[in-house]
Amino acid sequence: MSSTEAASAWKFLQRNPVYREERRTWAELAPVEAAPFPLRRQTEGDLEAASWGLLAWEDPLDEAGPAAPFWTDAPTLEATPMPETPTLAALLDVPDVRLSGLRLRTGAVIVKVERGEATVQIRIADGEGFDPGGGFNLLGLPTSRDLQERLRRVAELWPIGGAEMKKEAAGG
What we know:
It contains 3 helices and 7 strands; from the N terminus they run ααβββββββα. By secondary structure, the chain is an alpha/beta fold. The chain is globular.
């Protein structure tokens, strides 16, 4: 799912009365962890959001909400905690960038980086070792101390990777 498709799908869900009703039924107040950006814990009720392709319920009426929710099937980068790298929170100083996180019930953490309608999901399997005030190493990319540079590279490759995954899924 490309960023454009994710944004369109989220706009559809925001207007869908069935989604809104199910969210009211299943969503519960999610615990939020102390972090430099919103980092919430996936709840038992959030597991029901999987039928909509989501890892957690999002409020469709929240105008200040995300460009896209945490998707189950979005292309997701893998990362490992790495305290000696620049902190993830440094991205909060970049204009128009928003960070949010979701600690899954399995212990893994999904970090979402949004800029406009472009969204990148990053999965840190070692959720216990993840420090939201620390940094991480994106697997499959050259190690660099400049997190912003690594994420810029990801943003440049993102549309290409999404197109390749769609071709594979279509059998092409």
